Amino acid sequence: MSEHEHGNAVIVLTQAAIARSGHSIWSHGNFAIPTGTVTAIVGTNGAGKTTLMKAELGLLPLSEGSISVLGQPAGKATAQIGYVPQSYTSEIDANLTVEQSVLLGINGTRFGLHPTTRSEREQANQAMTFTGVHDRAHSRLSDLSGGLRQRVAIAQALAGKPKLLMLDEPLANLDLASQREIVQVLARLNSELGMSVQVVAHDLNMLLPILDGAIYLLDGHPHYAGIHDVMDSELLTHLYGTDVEVVTTAQGEMFISPSVQGPSMRRHHTHTATEIARLDMEHSAQERQA
């Protein structure tokens, strides 16, 4: 399919492949992600999730094929992309204030070399207000919780007014309340601003209410599908390499849980909210033991 036929796509992969030291990470990437959607990149550890996002950003070269982002070759539309790397909270200077950190998303390398303009401060304030950290503008990052730091990272990425926001594992190492707050920010970005959002994630459950689709890395190839097609027990079992069950609440909300049954006994269930809460607690306990 031609680039013209993908006119409404935010990201397009055409026979894309990436390799390191002659070893294929993934190949045969062929899909288009619609503009204005929220997409997750999922797969097991080492499958190449972060590698895919970095290739889309133009930070890693392809061994074959092409990637188009916002209608341009990967790496050419960086001014229109907000990026939150997984390492943000550990690498950013913790002595910076929240406002100083967010301003880096606007004036970048000019920070500290030239006076900050009123327009830039207003832009930063809008980003801080949207993410709910404006009241901590003069606090040092070292004084913030992990959840607040992550919201500052998103504010920094938003300060440049991007069309596409890309986040690498933004929910990692956060408590449930902080995860929920981050997801709510992403939901508002999409619903209120029409922003396209892409998230690298290991666990889909917290993101499920806002996802339109997912890229899943399976058998060495990236695939894209709508979220209802991805929410299939057999597909997810194959993807994660362990028995996985997709369950649905009485209200129609979907949830992924480790299956306690063998593959031949697996079926799609409907559960009450109380049962879902119990499954979630069991799943969290299993993760801590692992």
UniProtKB/TrEMBL annotation:
Keyword Magnesium included in the entry's annotation: no
CDD domains: ABC_Metallic_Cations
Protein name: ABC transporter ATP-binding protein
SUPFAM superfamilies for this protein: P-loop containing nucleoside triphosphate hydrolases
GO MF annotation, one: ATP binding
This protein's record includes keyword Membrane: no
UniProt keywords, alphabetically: ATP-binding, Nucleotide-binding, Transport
Domain ABC transporter residue range list: 11-244
Listed Gene3D superfamilies: P-loop containing nucleotide triphosphate hydrolases
One Pfam family, short name: ABC_tran
